[in-house]
Amino acid sequence: MSEKEVLDILGVKVGLGQSATVNFNVAKLHTQNSIDVPVIIERSKKPGPTILITAGIHGDEVNGVEIVRQIIAKGINKPKRGTIICIPVINVFGFIHMDRQFPDGRDLNRVFPGSKKGSLASRVAHQLMAEIVPHADLILDFHTGGADRFNAAQIRIIKNEVVLDELAEAFGAPFIYYSKNLKNSFRNSAYKLGIPMLLFEGGKSFNIHSTITNTGVNGAKRVLNHLDMLRSQFKASKPKKNAVRILDAKWLRANYSGMFKSAVAINSYVEKGEVIGNITDPYGSFNHFVKAPNSGYIFNINESPLVYQGDAIFHISTKVEGE
């Protein structure tokens, strides 16, 4: 085999038409037991692009893990051409403990590209960027909302990138949200390497939601189909409607502490001044109506029954394409 036909990843050589599960060694526990993250590789006999599919950068974002699990369990990750690399759980420490962060207290998605001699999270980020990411031509990274905030299914990309726009449209999520790459994030580090990433957000932490899961799996199939990598036994369904492209948005925060209840469903379009929720006290003496500050789409709702003054309770679009 020529070098181009061999994928040399984490010290293991995988040829065209071969499958492999390679261990990405994260660290050792105090007991000297190794913590390994399985990296599942499927290669077609036909050469083509290499797609990296990841989830679980935050250990509490279980729904993203479920999406990648289904992609593997259903065999969608076995490509018609090219290579698909799946890492269902990057932050295995957080996943085990149902914790968003690493044991060192750091948010893995804020320490990229990492450092060989840095904190534990930083070392994992460095190894991921050095040994796995450079093989990819495209990354699909699956996330959920945190702290009881339920995200509508959405793809997040930066503005003015033709390739990302095309891929996001192919994915077919209800929303495409144009947001800046955050400093020291996985997405920003991939961007600096020239590797496009579709960041999927959907659902909330500690939760598996069937609609969000289906949207993620179907979106992955559509992208693979768009790249001529989806095998013929799978069908890429058409989205029910075109994605709403959100150019700008704002967080609506609670003016009062109390018991909170939303009056609108996720994905709803609301008019300026419309009552979209209310905050009450436990004693029946106070009832504050939350009103939409502008007309727009509600694409994140805080589902916590109790909120404090200043908590983010709704994410609402302020500018969408075509308006």
Topology:
Elements: E1 6-9, E2 12-15, E3 19-28, E4 34-43, E5 50-55, H1 62-73, E6 83-87, H2 92-97, H3 120-131, E7 138-145, E8 149-157, H4 162-171, E9 175-178, H5 186-192, E10 197-204, H6 210-226, E11 244-253, E12 258-262, E13 269-270, E14 275-280, E15 287-291, E16 296-302, E17 306-307, E18 312-320
Organism: Winogradskyella maritima
Cofactor: Zn(2+)
Keywords: Hydrolase, Metal-binding, Zinc
Structure description:
Pfam families: AstE_AspA_cat. Residues 47-227 form the Succinylglutamate desuccinylase/Aspartoacylase catalytic domain. This is Succinylglutamate desuccinylase/aspartoacylase family protein. It comes from Winogradskyella maritima. Its cofactor is Zn(2+). This protein is an alpha+beta fold and 323 residues long. The protein folds into two domains: 3-226, Aminopeptidase, CATH 3.40.630.10; 249-320, Beta Barrel (OB fold (Dihydrolipoamide Acetyltransferase, E2P)). 20% of the residues lie in helices and 35% in strands. It contains six helices and 18 strands. A five-stranded mixed barrel has the order 8-9-11-18-16. It has a four-stranded antiparallel β-sheet with strand order 15-14-12-17, with no helix packed on it. Strands 1-2 form a two-stranded antiparallel sheet. Helix 1 (62-73) crosses helix 6 and helix 4 packs across helix 6 (210-226). It starts with 5 loop residues before the first strand and ends with a strand.
